[in-house]
Amino acid sequence: MLIDFLERMSGNRERRNIACRAVLGRISIFHPCSLSFLILFSLLQVISPVALSDEQGAKQGEKFDPAQLVSPTRVVTLGTGTPNILPGRSGTATAVVVNQDQVYLFDAGSGFMETLSQFLEPGKQNIFPTSPSYPEFMYPTFLNKLFLTHLDSDHILGIPELLLRGWVLERNEPVKIWGPKGTEQVVKGVVSAYQPDIQHRLQSLPISKGEPYSGVVTEFDKSGVVYQDKYVTITAFTVEHGSWKEGEAFGYRIDAPDKSIVISGDTSYSQNLIENAKGADILLHEVMSEEGLAKLPEKWQHYMLAAHTTTRQLADIAKQVKPKSLVMIHPLLFGKPEESLEQELAGHYFGEFSLANDGDVFE
Q1: Are 167 and 208 members of one domain?
Q2: CA 92 to CA 102: how far, in whole Å?
Q3: Percent of the chain, pLDDT > 90?
Q4: With DSSP H G I counted as helix, E B as strand and the rest as coil, what are the percentages for the chain, rounded to 5?
Q5: Are 312 and 348 in contact (CB under 8 A)?
Q6: Is the same domain home to 263 and 353?
Q7: Are 351 and 244 in a shared domain?
Q8: What pLDDT, in 10s, does the model give residues 267-302?
Q9: Residue 60 domain flag
C-alpha cells in the first residue's frame, strides 16, 4: 500500500492530497507506523511538485539528452516595448521554444500575439509547434505556460488575449500561470470581466466547453525553482523594481538541454541578478538611455534609477555575467533614437550584443 501511495505522489498537489487521505483513512491512529506516516504526509503536503516529478512525467533528476534535440533552443522576442507607444514594439513578452515542442512564455504585454503572424512567413515556420488540426494556420495552443516577472500593466495587458484568443483557437485546457502574489487576482479579474464574451462563445461556438479560457495560478514570493519538466528547469530570482516590495518582482533563469537563458524582468542594477545569471548563454536585459535620462526632470530621474538599468550599468552587469550574447529588451529611450542606445552601450561594453525587435529569434 505504501509503494502504491508513493507512486501516486508523482502527480499534482490535488492528486497527492487525494492519495494521502485515501491511505490515511486505512491506517489506524494507534498503528505503530502511523506516527511516521503522519510525518511523511506532512512533509509531502509542503514539498513543491517540482521536487517529486515534473510536468511531463520525467523521473526526478532525469534530463533530456541534448543530442536528441531536433532543433536548438530558441528565444523569440514577441514583444519588446514599454509603456511608451513606439512603432513596431508590442508589450513585453518573450518565448523560449525548446525542441520545437514546448513553449515557455515570459510576460504577456499588449499586442504580443500579433507578432506570431510573422512565423507564418517562409523561413520562420519551423520555430513554433504547428497545429495538429490546421498546420497552415497559426493556432497558438502551444502558449499554455506563462511566467510573470511582476504585475506592471505593460507586462500583463496581453493576458486576456492569451486566455481567450488561445481558447477560441482550439486550446482545450487552462493556461498554467506562475507569478508573484496578486497574479491570481489579475487572472480571476480577467475571467470575470469577459464573462459576456465567454458565455456567448460557450453557447454558440463548437469549442471546448470546460474552462480552458481560464488560468491555473501558482503564486510565489521567494527565489527558487518554480517549474521543471524534461526539457527545462526554471528558476525565479528576486530583483528590485521601484516600489514593488521584496518578492514582488522577479527575473528568471531557464536552463534548457543546450543552453541557459536569463530574462531580467524590469529591474534596477541587481547584484542578485548577476549571481543568478553567471554562466548563462543568453542574457535578455531591460535598458534605458543614459543620455535620455539626463534630460528628464529630477523627480523622474530618481524614479527611473530606482526601477531600471542604464546602458552603463548594463555594461557592468554584462562584464560580470559574461554571456555569449547580450540582448537588450524593454528599451526606454526618452526621445533618443535607438542607434544612440546602441552607441551608449558600445562605449562601455565590447562583447556581442543586440537590441531586440519584435519577432527576433536568438539561438
Answers
A1: yes
A2: 20
A3: 75
A4: 35, 20, 45
A5: yes
A6: yes
A7: yes
A8: 999 999 999 999 999 999 999 999 999 999 999 999
A9: no
pTM: 0.84
Q: Tell me if 53 is assigned to some domain.
A: no
pLDDT digits (tens, 9 = 90+) for 40-63: 434 444 334 443 335 554 555 578
CA dist 223 → 89, 253, 272, 349 (Å): 30, 11, 10, 29
Residue 9: exposure state from Cβ atoms within 10 A (0-12, 13-18, ≥19): middle
Residue 287, phi then psi, degrees to nearest 5: -160, 155
As a whole number of angstroms, the distance between CA 132 and CA 209 comes to 20
Q: What is the pLDDT of residue 55?
A: 55
| Least reliable range by pLDDT among 19-23, 144-148, 325-329, 342-346 | 19-23
Which grid cell sits at 195? 464573462
| Statement to judge: residues 238 and 324 lie in one domain | yes
Structural domain span for residue 331: 66-362
3-state secondary structure of 283: strand
**Set of cell numbers at residue 32:** 505503530
The three cell numbers locating residue 178: 506562475
Query: What one-letter code names the amino acid at 97?
Result: V
**What are the grid coordinates assigned to 84, written together?**
511608451
